[in-house]
Design goal:
heterodimer; A: mainly beta; seven-stranded mixed sheet; four-stranded antiparallel sheet; 11 strands; globular; B: mainly beta; 0% helix
């Protein structure tokens, strides 16, 4: 059974760096085809994809946030860490991590999600 | 970036009704389209992948169709537990994008 859980600070001050950790079980990020993504959702708004890391350490970032995001994996700890620099109140959101499932010939999907962690950016 | 546009943004409907939600892509994405359901205060749940394949455990009243730039999610007979927000998402590009969501409310 695949599970993921996000952790990190609830409150961050503007201009600070936000560090979020996704701890997962039921799969290995060293297995071919596997990936973990980060997605966020401001209160009352739509989902926004942020970043994805693959089993081979390939990484993808949202073009609009690329300069502020870094995603890394720790395979031995079964963790993926997302850092976001220079946060602003508009970054207030629930942040989710999710398991990426490869679908042969048809791309992929985020098939298992964590419960999410709420982050408030405020002074 | 590939833009995803859903319509309508919201709809009011009744239990037992047939509901159709449309998702349009800004370029041809083949069948690289997924649908998610999100209930209030919960994480999204994958319903449909590759445009028309039902995720394991999802009731067969949900179905997806389409290819290229136009896709639909259909609920054949809406149940009380189906009142939620639905999102489409493209995986044609490794840079994923979601639609803005469609909220299905009780009339």
């Amino acid at each position: 059974q695949i599970t993921l859980k996000e952790s990190g600070p609830t409150l961050v001050k503007p201009t600070q760096t936000l560090t979020l950790t996704c701890t997962f079980s039921g799969f290995s990020l060293s297995t071919s085809g596997v990936g973990v993504g980060w997605i966020r959702q401001p209160p009352g708004k739509a989902l926004e994809w942020l970043a994805l890391i693959y089993w081979d350490d390939d990484k993808r970032y949202s073009p609009s946030l690329r300069s502020r995001l870094t995603i890394v994996k720790n395979t031995s700890k079964n963790q993926v860490v997302l850092t976001m620099t220079n946060v602003d109140p508009v970054d207030t959101a629930t942040y989710y991590c999710a398991h990426r499932r490869s679908i042969s010939g048809y791309g992929d999907a985020l098939d298992i999600w964590g419960q999410g962690t709420m982050v408030i950016v405020s002074s | 970036d590939i833009q995803m546009t859903q319509s309508p943004s919201s709809l009011s409907t009744s239990v037992g009704d047939r509901v159709t939600i449309t998702c349009r892509a800004s370029q041809n994405i083949g069948r690289y389209l997924n649908w998610y359901q999100q209930k209030a205060g919960k994480a999204p749940n994958l319903l449909i992948y590759a445009a028309s394949s039902l995720q394991s455990g999802v009731p067969p009243r949900f179905s997806g169709s389409g290819s290229g730039t136009e896709f639909t999610l259909t609920v054949s007979s809406l149940q009380p537990e189906d009142f939620a927000t639905y999102y489409c998402q493209q995986s044609y590009s490794n840079l994923y994008t979601f639609g803005q969501g469609t909220k299905v409310e009780i009339k």
